[in-house]
Amino acid sequence: MGLSDTEIRRYSLRLLRAKNTISAKYAFFSYLISRLGFALDEECETACTDGETLFFGPSFLEKLDDDETVFLMLHELMHCVLRHTRRTGSRNAFLFNVAADIVSNSILLETFAPAGSGADFTVAGETPMHIAPDGSEGREHTTEEVYQMLLKDPEMKNGGGNLLSPSGEDGDGGYTLLDDHSLWGKGENSKASDDEWSRRIIEAAAHAKTCGQDGHIPTYIRQMIDRFNSREVDWKTALHNFCRRIDFFDYSWMRGDRRYTQQDLYLPDYTETDSDELEASDLLFFVDTSGSMSDEEVGMLMAEIRSAISIFNNRLKGKLGFFDTQVIEPVEFDDEQSFKMIEAKGGGGTDFKCIFRYIEKNEKKPPAAIIIMTDGFAPFPDEKIAKGVPVLWIIYKTKVKPPWGEVITIK
C-alpha cells in the first residue's frame, strides 16, 4: 500500500527538519549534503544511498527522534563522502559494509553526539557500532584496515554496540548494519568523481571556517583535507614557479602563508593588496583526449586545472582546448565557474604537432605560455615548433620525459 499524500508530507517535513538542523549546527556537513538528492523509499527498511541520493524508509523514520534522524542522514552522507559505494571490490561485502559503518559512525560521534559521549547516543535503541575489533575507535583507521581486522576474526563480540543480533549469511559473526548497503557496487552509482568529492570536501571546510564552525570538522576529515592540499600545493608550486620564470608574477616571499606552515614548502602569501600583481592570463591549456586517456583520467586532469584556478583565486585565465590528432577549438575561461562549463571532446590517436599548427593558423598572437597535459604516448616534435613560446608539459601517470620544455609529473 502506497503512502498517502499526508504521510508523504509528514515524512518529508521530518527530513526537511533534520536537514535544517544540519544547516544550523554543522556548516561543513550542510555544504556537502546540499549536493545530494533525497527520497522516501517504502521498500527500504532503514536508509540507503547510491552515492547520489539518500533514501529513507518511512517505517524506520517512525522509530527515530529528531536527533537520531539527523545522525542517520549524516551517516548516509558519510558513506558518500568516503566513497564507500565504490570501494567494496571483490571483498566480502558484508564485512566491508560493517567496516564502513564502524568508521562512519566513529567519525560522526566525535562531533555529533548530543550527550558528549558516543556510548550514550543511540539510534532506534542501539548504540551505533563505532569500535574496531582491536578496541580502538574506527576513525583511527581506514575502512580497509577495519575490514582486515574483521576478516581475521569476524566472530569478535566487540564493536561498540548492536553486534549481538542473530548471525546472517556470509559469515557476518552477528554484526548488524545501521542501514541498507544493497545499492553499493551496482554499476556507476555516482556521477561525481573522486576528484569532484575532494573538491567538495575542501570547499565545505572553507565554508565551515567562514561560518565560524571549522571546529566541528571531524579529525578524520581534516586529515583527508591535508592529503588533498598536499597534492594541490605541489601543483600550485610547480605552476607558480613556471609562471614566475616567464615573468607573470611579482610577489613577496617575506610573509608566509599560514595555511601551509606545516608543509615542507614555504609559499608566498597572497593578500588583497597584492591582487593586481597576481594575474596570469593568456595561458593556453591543452588536454590529451586520445584513445589512451580514459574519460576518468581526462576528468582528473581538468579537475587539476580547475583546482589551480581556485588556488590562484580565479586569477589564472586563458583558454582550454583538447587534442588527439586534431585540436578541438579552445574555449576561453576567466574564472572557475566559466571553466566548469567546458566539456571534453576527442578520442583518436595522439599528435603533439597539431597543437602548434593550430596556434600558428588560428591564434592572432602567440599565447603567453602553452601547458600540455598528456600521458606522453606519442613522438615529441622538435622544440623549434614552439617558436619561442614557453611550454609546460604535464605528464600524467607515466615516466615519459619530453626532450624539451619544462615538465611536471602527476602520479
Task: Describe the 3D structure.
The protein has eleven helices and nine strands. The chain is α/β, with parallel strands linked by helices and 411 residues long. It has two domains: 5-194, no CATH class; 218-410, 3-Layer(aba) Sandwich (Rossmann fold). The strands form two sheets. A six-stranded mixed beta sheet has the order 6-5-4-7-8-9. Strands 1-3-2 form a three-stranded mixed beta sheet. Strand 2 and strand 3 (53-56) form a beta hairpin. Helix 1 (5-25) packs across helix 2. It is elongated and about 75 Å long.
Helix-strand category: alpha/beta
Ranges where pLDDT stays below 50 over 5 or more residues in a row are 157-172, 248-278
Total number of helices: 11
CATH homologous superfamily title of the largest domain? von Willebrand factor, type A domain
Helix content: 25-40%
Q: Under the CATH scheme, which architecture of the largest domain would be assigned? A: 3-Layer(aba) Sandwich
What is the C-level CATH assignment of the largest domain? Alpha Beta
Distance between the termini: 53 Å
Q: What about the largest sheet?
A: 6 strands, mixed
Q: How many separate domains?
A: 2
- Global geometry: elongated
Secondary structure layout plus pairing:
Elements: H1 5-25, H2 27-33, E1 37-40, E2 47-49, E3 53-56, H3 58-61, H4 66-81, H5 93-111, H6 143-152, H7 194-210, H8 219-245, E4 280-288, H9 295-311, E5 316-323, E6 327-333, H10 336-340, H11 353-362, E7 369-374, E8 391-396, E9 406-410
Parallel strand pairs: 1-3, 4-5, 4-7, 7-8, 8-9
Antiparallel strand pairs: 2-3, 5-6
